[in-house]
């Protein structure tokens, strides 16, 4: 029975590692949809990597318009973009094509 449990734990651990191949601990995913971000508000700790994944059909981008640092993705219709937040503060983020409706906030503590 102990061997069976050990095997199940090993299998579950392997599955968890496969599910998160590159990001490691401290990562969050945001969906880039037509035409909104999901979630609209994200609260994270400093050092967390946020990965935006394009899930809609229309072109979108991720652009910081307010906060401790600025960054932006290209405008595209698929794929992903990631950013590691190293400074605390509140980041105002939007898609410049669908602003002001398509926006979100990332709060970094
Ligand atoms: Cu957009």
What is this structure, in a nutshell?
The chain is built from 1 helix and 8 strands, in the order αββββββββ. It has 109 residues and is of the alpha/beta class.
SSE map:
Layout: H1 2-19, E1 27-33, E2 36-38, E3 41-44, E4 49-54, E5 63-66, E6 80-84, E7 89-94, E8 103-108
Parallel strand pairs: 1-4, 3-8
Antiparallel strand pairs: 1-2, 4-6, 5-7, 7-8
* Sheet with the most strands, sense and barrel status: 4 strands, mixed
How much of the residues is beta strand, in percent? Answer: 35-45%
What is the count of DSSP helices, taking H or I runs of 4+ residues?
1
Mean pLDDT: 87
Radius of gyration: 17 Å
Task: Output the strand order for the largest sheet.
Answer: 2-1-4-6
CATH top-level class: Mainly Beta
The helix content is 10-25%
CATH architecture: Sandwich
* SSE string, helices as H and strands as E: HEEEEEEEE
Tell me the distance between the termini.
45 Å
What name does the CATH topology carry?
A: Immunoglobulin-like
Name the hetero compounds present: copper (II) ion
Describe this entry's structure for a reader.
There is one protein chain. This protein is an alpha/beta fold. The chain has one helix spanning 2-19, and strands at residues 27-33, 36-38, 41-44, 49-54, 63-66, 80-84, 89-94, 103-108. The strands form two sheets. Strands 2-1-4-6 form a four-stranded mixed sheet, with no helix packed on it. A four-stranded mixed sheet has the order 3-8-7-5, with no helix packed on it. It is globular. Residues 20-24 have low confidence and may be disordered. The structure holds copper (II) ion (CU).
């Amino acid at each position: 029975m102990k061997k069976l449990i050990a095997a199940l734990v090993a299998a579950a651990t392997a599955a968890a590692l496969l599910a998160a191949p590159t990001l490691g601990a401290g990562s969050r995913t945001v969906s880039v949809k037509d035409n909104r971000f999901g979630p609209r508000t994200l609260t994270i700790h400093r050092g967390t990597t946020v990965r935006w994944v394009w899930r809609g059909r229309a072109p979108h981008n991720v652009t910081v318009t307010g906060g401790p640092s600025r960054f932006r993705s290209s405008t595209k219709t698929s794929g992903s973009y990631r950013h590691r937040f190293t400074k605390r503060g509140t980041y105002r983020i939007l898609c410049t094509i669908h602003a002001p409706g398509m926006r979100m906030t990332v709060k970094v503590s």
